[in-house]
Amino acid sequence: MTRVWKWNRPVTVREVLEDLQQERSIAYTTVMTVLDNLHQKGWVRREAEGRAYRYEAVSTRAAYAAALMNDAWSQSDNPAAALVAFFGMMSEEQRQALRDAVRIVQGPETVQAPAPRQQEAAQEEAAQQEAPGARQEENPGSAGAADER
To answer: What is the DSSP string of the chain?
Structure first.
């Protein structure tokens, strides 16, 4: 998916293959199988062009990441605590990007910090749910292997 998102246009198996071969040896049939699997899963659409297909992403990388975050958040039995724990893992740069995103979505005059007691309760709950040593600065393996295709 990284290659398809990178070009932001319909791509052929051959184009993806040639790009990947700059980094490692990979077979044409492997790339074709992966793109076919992505098509079957609904991640890419394809259109016939002669004897080949052109593949195009169904959604943007940002929309994909947002869907992953939404799915993970909706699995929580305490969304507020999950958000507090998630925000605690963010770098200052990521928190600033979050503040900027909230301003864009809500507008600067509607952004309000939660009441101190609500914020404390959510932080306490997140701390209780977090197992010792479970907090990690980086989360390798997240966002799925499909992101690297």
So the answer is: -HHHHHHTS-EEHHHHHHHHTTTS---HHHHHHHHHHHHHTTSEEEEEETTEEEEEESS-HHHHHHHHHHHHHHT-S-HHHHHHHHHHHS-HHHHHHHHHHHHHHH-TTT--PPPHHHHHHHHHHHHHHSPTT---S--TTTT-GGGG-
